[in-house]
Write the structure tokens for this entry.
Amino acid sequence: MSNPIIALLGNPNVGKTSVFNRITKLNQHVGNYPGITVEKREGTVKANGKTYSIIDLPGTYTLFPTSLDEDIVYQILGNKENKSHPDLVVVVSEPNNLKRSIILYQQARELGVPALFVINMIDEAKGKGLEIDYQKLEQYLNTKVYTTDARNGHGIHQLIEAFDERPGYYSSKFTIDSRFVPALEEAKKLFPLQTEYQTWQYLAQEDVSFLSADQRLALKNIRSTHGFTANDLQRWESISRNKQIDKEIDAIAVRKENLHLTKTNKIDKLLLHPVMGYIVFFAILLIIFQLVFILATPIMDWIDESFASLVDLVAGILPEGPISNLITQGVLSGIGGIVIFVPQIAILFILISLMEETGYMSRVVFLMDRWLRPYGLNGKSVIPLMSGIGCAVPAIMSARNIENTKERLITMLVTPFMTCSARLPIYVVLISLVIPNETFLGFGIQGLTLALLYVLGVVAALASAWILSKIVKTKHRSFLIFELPSYKAPDWRNVVTNVWDKTSGFLFGAGKIILSMAIVLWVLGSFGPNDKFYNPEKYILEANPTIGEDHLAEEVASYKLEHSFLGYIGMGIEPIVEPLGYDWKMGIGLVSSFAAREVFVATMATVYSLGEDVDIEDDAQKETLLTKMKSEINRNTGLPAYNLASGVSLLLFYAFAMQCMSTIAIMKRETGSWKWTLIQTGMMTGLAYIVAFLAYQFLK
Amino acid sequence: MQKSFSLDTLTIGECARISEVNATELPSKFLEMGLLPGCLVEIKHKAPFNGPIGLHIHTSNTLIAIRKSEAYHILVEKNSL
């Protein structure tokens, strides 16, 4: 027998996730609902001699969906065939929104799902000015009512013990208005086996995804022959339910002044102030990114060094050969390249979940919506976009907080345009190569160029968001209504589980893809199709018999790269990159830096026989690389390989192109589809190609 | 006499009672979140340059934010307090 399924249903901001965390402790995992990107939080708890599966449904105000999240809730509760259809629903409410929670509870019961009612944050009832008569409430709801305080675990035990309760028959308090009855009777004939309310729900929704196309069409025809829209039915239900509860709730709960709201109001006077609000917000942003960089850098350096010494250690133990190379340079370096992101992701998400937990995130949306809306984005897009200046990987993950599917998708699609920290070393090298070190109006032109590239990233992100918002279709119309919840101290359990979910999701989800791509690139760079790759010394000495020992080693590395598969690919794509002003050596740089942009500098160093370990922060080594690159001649044009035209073209290419497999991997994971991932890669690299082409042709 | 205004014309601190929520322009979610005809609302916050509006719904004691373009479709009566 399969485990009984218990689903937690409730409005956002009622502490439903805290209840979930308390019930399941750490026996939980986060996945996606099949085929879509809505997070599915599932867990188990052993009690009463059995194991229960607990599902934390996305927060919703109603069973009528206006977003993908809410759609999931209706699919699970409304469709008995759904794999997650619960045996019992626990409706979680909090003292301040009893009324809305009761409506949700009634809807669930009338669909035919048994339900318990929980009032969470019960410790706040007094402060929020509420006195509840529990006996009357139980009578009214015809179920057991439990009170919990998930922050300290009060009442959770009693709730778990009640998981076998199945409340008795529920008589609906919802009577359908006479003007809708003929239509409903017609619809009932289509679904003879369903409850009346279920049929009403079918009739009151535009698109019930689990019904057949014929059934949906039939429902649509009923609506149009009777002359009303799905929205009419929903509005009527909402108004009539509210009227009814307004009449009855006074006997159940007495309400006085809400002290929490008074306190919240005082804080909001500052945080939502038309001037001060923005100053505080930008100060917080600044602190966030400083913390992400300052705290993460030493940990990242440490990870980098540890992996380097681990690679050395393993290389020392294993016998030399391709297997040893595969493990050290392919697998271990690949894993190192994944783990290196963990500190940034974890720190960013600690700070973001703190903003969520305290209720400040809704204020960010309030402040920023006006500025991002014209580009088809949402106030919440500001966090991913700004985080993109550090690294697109955690930034794309932070877009999860955007409820609107379309706005979330667009945010993720444009975030990699922001100038991430991996572009910086390339910019520094290329700018010092091709941009004259002169001043313009007192500003260094090189510095100006760098600043311009950052601005370009922002412009590209916003402009492409604007275009995408015109193209991407959405089932749910765009509107914005959200609650500004009372401020509260964060629940640290939620912060910890949230950070762990995000970090482990990255490590194990995106990590797989990054690792396999790293191995493929390593294979391409470590094997060649012919003898020139395997016996480089012979060929170098033949061509240049007087070469010294020192130079021989460097020449070997460069010669091997040239005759590896990667090298041949670089030469193979030369016709494609030639119109952009690049030669095959830069082609190799482009291909290998597909792994990550920062690889470009290391590859260029190898190509120009300097050995791999060029430290771009070491001035002497940087100078050597720069001199070498400056004297390089493009054999196609006979001009210096890095002149103004090709340099600007290369800068622009890196500004726009999707040269980062970690970003690709995280997009695949977050969107759940290769379609959008490939569209994004195509869009960015295509744009990069066109812009670089135009720049080169114009400047040459 | 009662006069109808659209909600977006009110200034911070003003209270009004909702008389109508335009059915064709706004989804039922607005009603479900508490913007119901008959509810007493107070403008608490306005983001600058026609940004969102923060409303305190007295009836349900919650703070809700909506865009100005949506507030335009909600009619209120001022002197029926």
